[in-house]
Design brief:
Layout lengths: L15 H21 L2 H28 L3
Helix pairs in contact: 1-2
Amino acid sequence: MKSLDEYNFSGRPVTSMNILLLISDLEGSYQNLKWMGLKEDMETLEEMKRRYYKLYYQKKKEEKANNPL
């Protein structure tokens, strides 16, 4: 069972898996904006997605280095 602390500000760790969940939400929002023709907001989300994809690959690399199997 998860602690309720996870739902507080900064309560969820920044792991590659949690970043992927965030990216998934951003991708879904991006598609909705695309279908509605809201290009300026799409571009804003595109910038955010780039940052989080970069962070995802950094975290994935760190996690792999710390837990070699």
